[in-house]
Write a structure and sequence with these properties.
Elements lengths: L3 H6 L1 H7 L14 H20 L4 H13 L9 H5 L2 H7 L10 H10 L14 H4 L1 H12 L30 E10 L12 H15 L9 E5 L5 H9 L9 H5 L11 E5 L4 E5 L5 E8 L3 H16 L6 E2 L3 E2 L12 E7 L1 H5 L3 H7 L2 E4 L12 E6 L7 H21 L1
The chain binds adenosine-5'-triphosphate (ATP).
Adenosine-5'-triphosphate binds next to β1 and β8.
Pfam families: ATP-gua_Ptrans, ATP-gua_PtransN
Organism: Panagrellus redivivus
EC number: 2.7.3.3
Length: 409
């Protein structure tokens, strides 16, 4: 894993690379005193969401003042850009049926001024009740206007063979991964889930995953509760498991009752994995060494279909598959390669080249981490307004172009 000192040293660099992500820095980076106050803040805010007794208009005005005052001078989040006085005025007294306020949506971005986006939806209804804020952020991030609709599901069935290995000689690409997110119909997102919900959801998902018949996908569910720290650390270091202690998620109230109801399912060779109740209810992942995108996608499609045959997912007619973070809505697909491009990545305009190709660049251990040994995580940036297959193609075509640039440099 990247060391804390390296992470700190390259902080401004990481932030510019991950300008639009939700972020995954760890508590390792913070002094003890701050950790304590963060813990207190978390306990307090969890209580507040549950009780609903907070003075929302006051909190919203304080949030606005923080984002636009000296503390927020360097803040470049989409939250800061679109949380206007008018939005506050129109929404300060609104609540979803489950009790989420506008402040619950923005809490994380108010604490984490380095966030690229800074908002999360505590439940599906938040996307419509607080559309004044979410629609603007969604349009800015995905280029998806309020009049647009997510196209019908097209995972790319029958077309995986079109995606020939991107780097057959293995000169540049180390590994390929495609993930998507799914929410279980009938359950809100993390901040509004109760302890009993986590137990019900975990049991339901475990049962459905362990009944999958496909030989390649068959595997075991490992709950986080009871997992040794060594096993957990190894799974994280090997890129299979989510990290713990993400301050963006913590301040979004997404880590209540942790580690209850959280866990990972994987097949024997860890090429098909499912994360349970981390940021989203489910993250379905297919990955393998090398650059055979078609094979990775084919496995993902089989996995998604096997699970959805047993567990119903929630899908919105306009926004597609619903996720906690607005950057993941729609197709929810992030297709990525771990790739080394020594010449192109040394160029000053590397970030701009990737932007133009609609590619997102991250470090080797995911969001807010840095490149190690010149290896980057390069993926499609857009997820909403395009089909699942188009999202994979966005990465595929862009990375193909980057390899051409590398070879001609
Ligand atoms: N192509 C890849 N090969 C191997 N590991 C990968 C690849 N892409 C991502 N990973 C690993 O997957 C893990 C999760 O990454 P990360 O959290 O950035 O993305 P994510 O799962 O798409 O979720 P989010 O976008 O919500 O952060 C990290 O360990 C990362 O290194």
């Amino acid at each position: 894993m990247a060391s804390a000192s390296n992470i700190l040293r390259s902080r401004s660099w990481q932030l510019s690379l991950a300008a639009f992500g939700a972020g995954t820095a760890t508590y390792m980076l913070f002094p003890k005193a701050e950790m304590k106050s963060e813990k207190k803040a978390k306990a307090k805010s969890a209580e507040k969401v549950a009780s609903g007794g907070e003075d929302v208009p006051k909190l919203l005005n304080e949030a606005y003042a923080k984002l636009n005052g000296p503390d927020g001078a360097k803040c470049k989040s989409l939250l800061k850009k679109y949380l206007t006085k008018d939005v506050i005025e129109k929404n300060k007294n609104k609540k979803t049926k489950l009790g989420a306020s506008l402040y619950d949506c923005i809490r994380s971005g108010v604490y984490n001024l380095d966030a690229g986006v800074g908002v999360y939806a505590p439940d599906a209804e938040s996307y419509t009740v607080f559309a004044d804020l979410f629609d603007k952020i969604i349009e800015d991030y995905h280029g998806f206007s309020p009049k647009q609709k997510q196209p019908p599901v097209d995972l790319g069935e029958g077309r995986c063979k079109e995606l020939k290995p991107l780097d057959p000689q293995g000169k540049y690409i180390k590994s390929t991964r495609i993930r998507c997110g799914r929410s279980l119909a009938g359950f809100p997102f993390n901040p509004l889930l109760k302890a009993a919900d986590y137990e019900t959801m975990e049991a339901k998902v475990k049962q459905s995953l362990e009944s999958v018949k496909d030989k390649e996908l068959k595997g075991t569910y490992y709950p986080l509760q009871g997992m040794t720290k060594e096993t957990q650390a190894k799974l994280i270091a090997d890129h299979f498991l989510f990290k713990e202690g993400d301050r963006h998620l913590q301040h979004a109230n997404a880590c209540n009752f942790w580690p209850k109801g959280r866990g990972i399912f994987h097949n024997n060779n860890k090429s098909f994995l499912v994360w349970v109740n981390e940021e989203d209810h489910l993250r379905i992942i297919s990955m393998q060494d090398g650059s055979d995108v078609g094979n990775v996608l084919d496995r993902l499609i089989r996995g998604v279909k096997a699970i959805e045959a047993i567990v119903p997912f929630s899908r919105d007619p306009r926004l597609g598959f619903l996720t906690f973070c607005p950057t993941n809505l729609g197709s929810t697909v992030r297709a990525s390669v771990h790739i080394k491009l020594p010449k192109v990545s040394a160029r000053k305009d590397f970030k701009q080249i990737c932007d133009k190709l609609n590619l997102q660049v991250r470090g080797i251990h995911g969001e807010h981490s840095e490149s190690e040994g010149g290896v980057f995580d390069i993926s499609n940036k857009q997820r909403l307004g395009i089909s699942e297959y188009q999202a994979v193609r966005q990465m595929y075509d862009g990375v193909k172009k980057l390899i051409e640039l590398e070879e001609s440099a």
